[in-house]
Amino acid sequence: MSSHFLDAALLDELSARARSVPRLRAHHNLHDSPEAQAHRMLVAMEPGSYVRPHRHLDPNKAETIVVLRGRLGVIVFDEAGGMQDAREMTPGGAVIGYNIPPGVFHAIVCLAPGTIFIEAKAGPYAVPLAAEWGTWAPAEGEPGTAEALAAMRSAFSD
After folding, report:
1. How far apart are CA 98 and CA 32, in angstroms?
2. pTM more than 0.85
3. Percent of the chain's residues with pLDDT above 70
4. DSSP label at 144?
5. Could you tell me whether strands 97-100 and 105-110 are parallel, antiparallel, or unpaired per DSSP bridges?
6. Alpha carbon distance 19, 116 (integer Å)
7. In this structure, are residues 111 and 69 in contact, taking their beta carbons and an 8 Å threshold?
8. 3-state DSSP call for residue 59?
């Protein structure tokens, strides 16, 4: 890590990177390697970025997100893909983030340009197991992602 401080210049640069890549997401890791025991990162996300519903089966991998800029939606799903809860998160808003326990299906939806959040969960990184993906939703890059994203986006007002 080149600096001890997380400043506006870093957030601006991260947003610019997110806008310049096809996935419309960019990460700035605060941990040193995929093998680190704690994963902490800044994530910039733009509207149109698709995050497939997923869960973390490792009992140590609760996932915490706190929104720093913009608007982010989180959706919690049941095992069959039914929406159980949907919340909008904004800095200083009624909901600023979440802590999702292991085993709970969830997805995030970017609701505003320039959205940035901090994410933390236990490491080390492990390739997701097939059982960790919501099989009712297409994988990133597969046909149907635009429709799946639109359905998730519809849970939130403009």
Report:
1. 24
2. yes
3. 98
4. T
5. unpaired
6. 12
7. no
8. coil
